[in-house]
Amino acid sequence: xxxxxxxxxxxxxxxxxxxxxxxxxxxxxxxxxxxxxxxxxxxxxxxxxxxxxxxxxxxxxxxxxxxxxxxxxxxxxxxxxxxxxxxxxxxxxxxxxxxxxxxxxxxxxxxxxxxxxxxxxxxxxxxxxxxxxxxxxxxxxxxxxxxxxxxxxxxxxxxxxxxxxxxxx
Length: 169
Prior knowledge:
Helix content: 10-25%
Shape: elongated
CATH topology of the largest domain: Hepatocyte Growth Factor
Low-confidence stretches: none
Radius of gyration: 17 Å
Number of strands: 12
Strand order of the largest sheet: 2-4-3-6
CATH superfamily of the largest domain: Hepatocyte Growth Factor
Number of helices: 2
Largest sheet: 4 strands, antiparallel
Order of helices and strands: EEHEEEEEEHEEEE
Distance between the termini: 22 Å
Number of domains: 2
């Protein structure tokens, strides 16, 4: 299984199991081998080697980045985007601070996505959108950026990113 990068994040109130005194690699291995539930993510606390498994992922409404308690490390098993026909991630109340490459006003979210796909001057990977004034931001950054916030620190913005960039059709 392929794992996401370690991030300062957590999912509040979604622990399925707990394993004290293990390394982060042991925590991941236990998650992959779990049979009583579908383990999809781990939260790890290095200070006491606390390992917590969850069926939830970063798409959960309880996901916080950065985590509301400092010191936690979050990782999730990555789903292969090439095994789906979705072109964009689920829309979230999220944003990436200070990574706007281009903006458009007065466009729908579908037009915003289309502009990202058709962008030639930079490698557009994601959009932020505010429906109240139909404001669209295109960005090279993705949710793996250290500037990614979920929930967004400013109300009204939603975020989605391209999924199928590297798939061979």
